[in-house]
Amino acid sequence: MNRPVGRPAPRKTDRKQILPPPVKDERPVYTGPPRKITLTEGVTVKELGEKMEDVKSRDIIKALISRGIMATVNQTMDPQLAIELSREFGYEASIQSFEEEVVKVQTTDSKVEDLVARAPVVTYHVDVGNRKVVFLDTPGHEAFTLMRARGAKVTDVVVLVVAADDGVMPQTVEAMDHAKAAGVPIVVAVNKIDKADAQPDRVKQQLSDRGLMPEEWGGTTVFVNVSAKKKQNLEQLLEMLLLVADLQELKANPKKPAVGTVLEARLDKGRGPVATILVQDGTLRVGDTIVAGAVAGKVRALNDDHGERLKEAGPATPVEILGLQTLPEPGDQLMVVTDQLKAQSIVQFRQLKLREKAMASSSKIRLEDLGRAIAEGQLQELPLVVKADVQGSVEAVTDQLLKLPQDKIKLRVMPSATRWRSASTPSSTTRWRTSRRPWRACSSPPSARCGWARRRGATPSRSPRSAPSPAPT
Prior knowledge:
Elements: H1 12-18, E1 35-40, H2 45-51, H3 57-66, H4 79-88, E2 91-96, H5 98-109, E3 116-117, E4 121-123, E5 124-128, E6 131-136, H6 145-154, E7 158-163, H7 170-182, E8 186-191, H8 200-208, E9 222-225, H9 234-248, E10 251-252, E11 259-268, E12 272-281, E13 284-285, E14 289-292, E15 295-303, E16 309-310, E17 312-313, E18 317-324, E19 333-337, H10 340-360, H11 370-376, E20 381-385, E21 387-388, H12 391-402, E22 410-413, E23 417-418, E24 431-433, E25 439-440, H13 448-456, E26 459-461
């Protein structure tokens, strides 16, 4: 710009005086009663700012910096930290899980006219005329307590199978307690009535003493005498199951995204993580994005209980799914989600919490000093790693290990998982070597090498070809 001759240029100090003073952006302090908001686990700074009307993301970041925490708008926060920050801005926050939020949204969008009758869940897949019954079988061995507890939570009717010659066993009472805690009706099937020493009336007396009074004795519990060997009264049992299920008026909405429960999970060498789930509501389709606990994935294939491929699975349908990133835990709730970024954020947050929990409880023990430390009383805790073909077996073995006497040394089961399993390479064929890792439990049935390892005090490795190396002296 041309300036008139003889006119001096303005000085820098003059330019500073021309600029207006900065205006401080002070947020008004709220002094009223706390306002209630609901947050989802793994909430980000941006989502927390959107929940609070008069608070912006930069205000939350300033509050985090004052606590010594550097964060961005997409940073996930611990639930307790989010509650404390909300309280500072005059809000009372409550935390709900990601599954609860999805179910709440789906319930709001669901219509009454979309509800249809669904099959009752009891245990295998059985067709009764034009009706369908889904059976969920749980082991009767006392070690599988957790399996029976999960089965009672996802079924509509519990069938207690009691042998007429043996009477009521401890696991029968345990299964009955699980069913009562879940609020599920019970049907008693008195089996083996064809045997000479069968006493079905004794079974009725034992169960009536525990609160299950038969209908013929003035109670409300259905008792059916059956013989599985001779297929006697099985049709009557199925009719009674349908009658009990009809009284509950079971409904489901096949038009909504699927909601289910993980029953079992395993690693397959050719297919990767495989999960057996029960679709409880909605419809699961190939290509759906799913979240189960701390695992996410996309459904690549659906197989029914006969191994046949399906394109979709409706309510009350047990299926095997492929496409999960890792193995979910049995009992985890499975949800179909539409917001993939939100689902991935929740999964990462849960995996981080699991790693932090595992690292907090981890400690190193030298295997060569293990025997000496136990003998001298220096070792107070022994970590174990359990390997099995399915997650349910891991839970059962872990539960039995923790029931062992722990007067001299305490057992601590490390985070365990399933391993690859194939017909050509059984899980019991392993190589044993010394290491500093925790002890690994032998697979069942134990092999001769497994017994050798127990005698020599070694731990297993995966290669089946090398000869066992000598144990340290």
